[in-house]
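Take a careful look at the sequence and tokenised backbone pasted below. I need to know what the token row says about the fold.
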Amino acid sequence: MNLGSIPAGMTRRHFVQHLAAASALALPAISFTESLRASAADLKKRHKSAILLWMSGGPATIDVWDLKPGAPTGGPFQPIATSGNEQISEHMPEMAKQMKHMAIIRSMSTREADHNRGRYYMHTGYVPNPNIEHPSYGSVIAHEMNEQSKNLNLEIPPFVSVGGGSVGPGFLGMTYAPFVVSPDGQVKDLKSSIGGQRMGERLQMLASLEKSFISQHSPGGDRTTAADDHAKILHKTVELMTSKQMEAFKISQEPKEVQERYGKTGFAKGCLMARRLVEQGVPFVEVDLGGWDTHANNFQSLSRTKLPELDKAMAALVGDLDERGLLQDTAIIWMGEFGRTPRINGQSGRDHWARSWSVVVGGAGMKGGIAVGKTSSDGGDVETEPYSSQDVMASVCKSLGISLATTFTSRNGRPMKIANSGKVIKELFV
């Protein structure tokens, strides 16, 4: 490799290339032993985690969590009672049994109704800015819970994204980037039969390249920071490839009845994997379920596919965490980039709508069984105190014991308060 071709700063492409090179050194997988899995009772005393269920595309929350029966544009779905004080869609019967653990924030009111901008805003608490890349909530929480992860001797990256790429670490650095896996637990380029002497030789070669790469830059600058991050990631990758903790990604090891309880879809597998990962001490796991951009055939899509898939897997996850004593230390966040219009368009669909919609949270000490806030009779406006992405994040941070006084310094020297100075949603902690 020509060292002169190495870019001055560590770009994502540069990182991926070296990650792939390091991955080629992987040893065969080592079987998981029960000694590596502490009991749920012990683990819950030692760490807290968060699971984000990300609904890519913008779900019609008016048809899921905040129904308007009888309204001209309320749609055909009917509300049903739950184990809490809320009512939810008739197509969510399994989640209805678990709503005593979950709270619906019905007074979400945001401004970003574009997919990319909304995704960025709901993942970071900031609107996109060409001058700075903000860290995602997953990266922030992974960063803040890092000491707990060290206490658990965690070798798995602290932020895992299942089925999607999430949003990156911004100025927090590649150490806190999402580690992307498929719902089947596959990590690209993380399997190889190469070992022994060839592995040792390649490790030496990579170490030499990294040393030369870092030595080319003067200490203390952004370039050196990028190079150091790169070297740390390379070391972590090689460490991970030989780790027994990688078995946590293998949901096939779960009893058949447990797998059937979650379901067979990619999202279902991701939810089961999320439970296994938080058991190991991973601070943040994001599971993606796409397909919510229902500009056409909204009700058919929701009733036949999206809601049954969501209902089964999400209910299994909440119930499983509760039964294992982990829910009290695991925050669950359900959200997309925005909601959808109270108006039903000519294609029996709903369009983008950020003015009044819902997010669902629970676990980690947050109060369940309640609906926070209220929208108008047709769902078009928020009638109580509006809440933002920042407020949801501030509330999750509080539930995890993360100080809201925490302030980061971006690479351009700007101080940035955690959760963009969002306010805690007080009803969740009464």
About this structure: DSSP finds twelve helices and 14 strands in the chain. Residues 185 and 249 are 5 Å apart (CA to CA).
